[in-house]
Every structure is written in structure tokens, then in C-alpha cells.
């Protein structure tokens, strides 16, 4: 309760058995969150922030933890699997230990949520919500990073998402205090669980990619080293098991299409350098290549990039895209795949 305004930190939805009443407990928790956030008594919080709420859903001996936020849409994700909380015949200790750790983490984060809402309630610096303008509630919480070029911590504000898609994780932003750092005003901020930092830096040094200013944890201070993994013995070992990271790079103002007549030749020369350096790009499609105002080509998406022989396609490749022959879930990305994807690009000759 904050000055007469009440908002829940945790929503419970418990059923005696799976499917009781013809409904799913986790879905009911999501609907409860939706109902709560449409009530008038929480409207002040809805206008100020994304209203993060934790949810605990249980059906019989099964329990799961979920988290939700409200931006321009309600977003709810599972934070755990369905955990068995009943008694087994033997070997209960590891499972009970994991369950205890989950519940302890849940309790600790409820305290953090209380502090978060107290700060939101007392803040005088949150702009008034206006659907026609960018608002902090619609964007991720990181707003600063340690600039690798100047060594200074730079703050930024989000301007817009760079894709008209609910799954977008790439944003245009403005640095608010770049004076004396050499940093541009406009940057791109992206959130990834996999990234070819070494490849990005390799091409940026040759002016074939935007300057990379930060790659690391979401605190904006902890830089993450690029890891060169050995070739996995099994395809399943190719799955990246990394935490979410933040990428910050310079924003590049593009040249109006059509692309230059030598576009294919430019990209081919970049691939020559890339492959000679022992790297592969991986996702060579038109959204991932741009031409600046000098008509110089630049690669901008390095999620799948890495060392040749050690880099693999992700799970669930889109079936609507024409991939190179030999491309597939968890299969190795080869230099010849980059070449074939280049031939598929829709350039006007």
C-alpha cells in the first residue's frame, strides 16, 4: 500500500488438481494480472512503470513461478518449469533443495519489488505518460553502459523499437551525456543471449560494422569476454547456455535505397576478409546489411557469428526463409553458407 494505492507483488493461483474447473492455473494467474492492472486504483502505477508482478501457479503436486510486465501489451513468461512438489519414494533431497532455492529467490525478489514500487511512488522524475511519446515503461530497464572507447559510464534514453514486432529486442536510443567522450548521440541497444563479439570487433576495425561500445551484462558495467568454444562432440552441445547480455553500438544513418550498383561486390569483399580471418557470419539476409550515407556496406547483426568450425545454427530456424543448402537446427555454419546467402540477396544488378 502506497499512499492509498495498492498493487500486488505476487499473485497466487492454486488448484487441487491439474485442469480443475476446465482451466490452467498459469493462464488464470495471467488473467488475474490483466484484471488487476485495469482497475482504477492502480492507474497511477500503470502510467509510471511496467508494473512487474510475480505469479505462483499450482495444480495438484505441480508448481511454477511466472513473471509479468505491462508495456503496450501484457507480457507473461514462465520463470521455472512445472516443479513436482509431492513426495517420491527415494532421492527427494536434490529436488527439494532446488524447490527451496526457487522459493527463497522468490521471497528475496518480493522484497526487491516492494523497494522498486516505493521508489516509483516517490519519484518526481518519471515523465507523464503520453501515448504519442516514448515512455520508460515501454522499454527495458538498463539505461547506462561503460563505454569501451572513453572508459566513462554513459546514460541513455530509448527512442523507439527498431522493429514493428512484439518480439523486438533492438532499440534506437540517445546518449544524454556524451560531451567530451567522442561518442555519438544516437546508438543502438540490443539484448541477446548469443553474440559474435569478436566478429563484430573484427569488422568494425575495418569500417565494415558499426563501432561496438559495450557488450556485457545488463548492469552496463560488467563486460563479457567473447568465448571461443571448441567444436562440440554432439549437436546438443552447440546450444548456447549464456545469460542475457546487452550490446551497444553506434547508430548508422542509412543511404536511401536502391542500394549501390556494387552492393553485391562490396559484401563479397567483406566476406573475403571475414572468412580469411577464420570467421563466419551466419545470417546474411537483407535486414542485416545496410549502406551508410557514403554507400559503404556494413554488417549489423552478429547473433550467429563466430569462429569457423565452432559456430552453429540455433534451434527453430524459420521455415519461411530460404536458407543455404546444408543449414539446419544445430548444424555447423560454414563459409559456403554465407556465399550462398549472398547469392540469395535481392540486389538490383
From TrEMBL:
SUPFAM superfamilies: Protein kinase-like (PK-like) (SSF56112)
InterPro entries for the chain: Kinase-like_dom_sf (IPR011009)
Domain of life assignment: Eukaryota
Protein's UniProt name: Protein kinase domain-containing protein
Amino acid at each position: 500500500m502506497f499512499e492509498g494505492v495498492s498493487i500486488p507483488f505476487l499473485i497466487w493461483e492454486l488448484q487441487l488438481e491439474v485442469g480443475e474447473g476446465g482451466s490452467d492455473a498459469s493462464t488464470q494467474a495471467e488473467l488475474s494480472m490483466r484484471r488487476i492492472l485495469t482497475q482504477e486504483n492502480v492507474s497511477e502505477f500503470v502510467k509510471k512503470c511496467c508494473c512487474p508482478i510475480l505469479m505462483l501457479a499450482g495444480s495438484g503436486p505441480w508448481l511454477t513461478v511466472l513473471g509479468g510486465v505491462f508495456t503496450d501489451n501484457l507480457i507473461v513468461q514462465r520463470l521455472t518449469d512445472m516443479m513436482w512438489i509431492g513426495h517420491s519414494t527415494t532421492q527427494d533431497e536434490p529436488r527439494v533443495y532446488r524447490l527451496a532455492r526457487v522459493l527463497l529467490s522468490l521471497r528475496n525478489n518480493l522484497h526487491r519489488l516492494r523497494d522498486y514500487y516505493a521508489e516509483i511512488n516517490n519519484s518526481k522524475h518519471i515523465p507523464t505518460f503520453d501515448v504519442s511519446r516514448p515512455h520508460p515503461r515501454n522499454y527495458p530497464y538498463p539505461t547506462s553502459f561503460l563505454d569501451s572507447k572513453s572508459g566513462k559510464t554513459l546514460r541513455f534514453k530509448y527512442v523507439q523499437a527498431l522493429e514493428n514486432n512484439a518480439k523486438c529486442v533492438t532499440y534506437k536510443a540517445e546518449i544524454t551525456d556524451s560531451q567530451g567522450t567522442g561518442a555519438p548521440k544516437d546508438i543502438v541497444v540490443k539484448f541477446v543471449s548469443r553474440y559474435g563479439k569478436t566478429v563484430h570487433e573484427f569488422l568494425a576495425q575495418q569500417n565494415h560494422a558499426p563501432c561496438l561500445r559495450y557488450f556485457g551484462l545488463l548492469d552496463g558495467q560488467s563486460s563479457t569476454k567473447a568465448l571461443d568454444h571448441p567444436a562440440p562432440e554432439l549437436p546438443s552441445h552447440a546450444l548456447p547456455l549464456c545469460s542475457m547480455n546487452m550490446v551497444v553500438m553506434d547508430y548508422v544513418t542509412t543511404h536511401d535505397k536502391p542500394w549501390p550498383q556494387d552492393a553485391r561486390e562490396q559484401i563479397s569483399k567483406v566476406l573475403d576478409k571475414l572468412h580469411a580471418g577464420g570467421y563466419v557470419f551466419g545470417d546474411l539476409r537483407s535486414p542485416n546489411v545496410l549502406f551508410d550515407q557514403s554507400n559503404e556496406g556494413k554488417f549489423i547483426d552478429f547473433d550467429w557469428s563466430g569462429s569457423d568450425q565452432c559456430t552453429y545454427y540455433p534451434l527453430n530456424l524459420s521455415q519461411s526463409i530460404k536458407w543455404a543448402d546444408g543449414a539446419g537446427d544445430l548444424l555447423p555454419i560454414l563459409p559456403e553458407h554465407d556465399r550462398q546467402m549472398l547469392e540469395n540477396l535481392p540486389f538490383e544488378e
